[in-house]
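Render this sequence as a predicted structure.
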Amino acid sequence: MARKKGYTINFQFEDYPRQIRDSVMVAKWNPHLALDWMNGVGIRVTSPIHIKQWNTAAKQINHFWDSIVDCRWYSERAFWKDAAPERLNAIEENITLEDYAAMVKFEKVQNKE
């Protein structure tokens, strides 16, 4: 009988738009994984086009998470797995890439402490 192989994402070798699309799809059933993927993709922003794609996906994900709150089947505890609900913050479109890279590095250092 064939064995099921584990599924992993390698952020270095996949293309940027595909990772963004996958994150939007995953946000519907696993919010924590979508947040991890979007943050992983957000670290690799290299152009203004990537910033626009990331912001569009973040708006879609946040809109979906905001819209399901009013559904009768929605349970915050079940959907977020007993963690606090989070939202994605948009990247400023007029920020320079060097400033954005410095900001991401600063946030990483603060999160490790």
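Summary. The chain is about 55% helix and 0% strand. The mean pLDDT is 80.
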